[in-house]
Amino acid sequence: MVNPWLAMEAGADPVERTRTVRRAHAAFLADGTVAPPVRRVVAESWRRSAHARAAWDGVAPIELDDAALRAHRESHPLARAMPVFRDLLGSFAQDGAHLLAVCDQQGRLLWVEGHRGVRRSAERMNFVVGARWDETHAGTNAPGTALAADHAVQIFAAEHYNRQVQRWTCAAAPLHDPRTGRLLGAVDITGGDHLASPHSLALVQATARAAEAHLAAGAPEPGACLSVLGRDEALLVVDGRRLRLGRRHSEIVLLLARHPAGLTGDQLAVQLYGEREMRPVTLRAELSRLRQLVGGLLHSRPYRLSRPVETDLGTVEERLAAGDPWSALDGYDGPLLPSSEAPGVRRLRDALTGRLRTALLAGGDPGLLGAWSRTPWGEDDLEVWEALVDALPERSPARGAPRATADRLRAAYGLTGGAAQAPAAARVATFRQPPRS
């Protein structure tokens, strides 16, 4: 069976493949149809890119200036893996006239190294540090598509959504936190058509595995971690096991993690069901099923967790408390258990979103405001769009697009006059959930 993540099968003619895929790309831009020989992974990426209105003939935006880039690099977990990337890919990139690139989980390039002449050529399409190369902003490309699909992938020439990138070929693999499984970013090798071989894809996959092993060697002993941001079903990592919890179990574990001293049955019921009348047996049945999954992690009388459970919610809160909104936003993968209607969860969700938005609005940093406005949960946030317009220089042509968006949202919400906050529901949008783990 042909590996669907490889750009070309052995013996394929790269010139002919470029010609046929370029015709398919033109047809897709014209009428949205995709035909062979376009691979399924590429077709799906083109559709995501088109849905996000990614530019098909522009350059990726630069989101991090020098100061923000420096701070983000220093705090990012992948900084510890850079020696591994350089050892395994550095000479390959330099000697083969390629580029080694490492991005964060939002697709922002944190390191771009390699052949000097190739770097200068790549600068013309903003393949530079600080630029955002996720699919939403740069269309189909190896690091962006590796993040979206959570799988190593090779993108060849005309398979790129953006025409300015179609002279390049790249291979990238996602990177995960070895303790929590959280997506950290991707490692990429970019160059000419000769990278469209099984060797380059295998190389970045092996490099990603080596980097994750390096991070695991320096990580704390396995404990208990709970990921609840941007996902309806929490991911619990306990003693090396990764458990995807159901929605009610996600709520229970989160609430107990926030109350280490424990909750009585009545207290937990109020947090879960509010004032609705609920038979005690209903909650006891949920807790019994949860205990079958997590074993000794769940204790009773009162209901509590047997050990501290770290949460990505707590991580973002700590970064906000430390006055580091860039790092907080980087760790914010979306609203907390967005589909949950449990009163206790809703209070936590609203409190975190409110604190994060307050920090962004108070700072007035156009980079932060722009980053929030480009997320699925921030794209309809009128107050942020208004603040972004105010944060940009008066004569900057970049004010035009935010101002137009703010005017559109104001009209949609039936508001007139100055800055106004959009309805809260508009700030918790439906968005793509993480892949099943």
Explain the overall architecture.
Residues 116-214 form the GAF domain. InterPro entries: GAF, GAF-like_dom_sf. Residues 419-429 have a biased composition (Low complexity). With 437 residues, this protein is α+β, with helices and mostly antiparallel strands. The chain folds into three domains: 14-217, Beta-Lactamase; 221-352, Orthogonal Bundle (Arc Repressor Mutant, subunit A); 364-437, no CATH class. It has helices spanning 14-31, 40-51, 66-75, 82-95, 116-123, 135-138, 142-149, 198-217, 247-258, 265-273, 280-294, 312-321, 325-331, 343-363, 366-373, 382-391, 400-412; strands at residues 99-104, 109-114, 153-156, 169-176, 183-191, 224-227, 235-238, 241-244, 298-299, 304-305, 310-311. Strands 2-1-5-4-3 form a five-stranded antiparallel beta sheet, sandwiched between helices. α4 (82-95) runs antiparallel to α8 (198-217), α15 (366-373) runs antiparallel to α16 (382-391) and α16 packs antiparallel against α17 (400-412).
How many beta-strand runs?
A: 11
Global geometry: globular
CATH class category of the largest domain: Alpha Beta
Low-confidence stretches: 425-430
Average residue pLDDT: 89
**Beta-strand fraction estimate:** 5-15%
Distance between the first and last residues' Cα? 25 Å
User: Can you write the helix and strand succession as a string?
Assistant: HHHHEEHHHEEEHEEEHHHEEEHHHHHH
Region (Disordered): 418-437
Biased composition (Low complexity): 419-429
Pfam family, one: GAF
Organism: Streptomyces endophytica
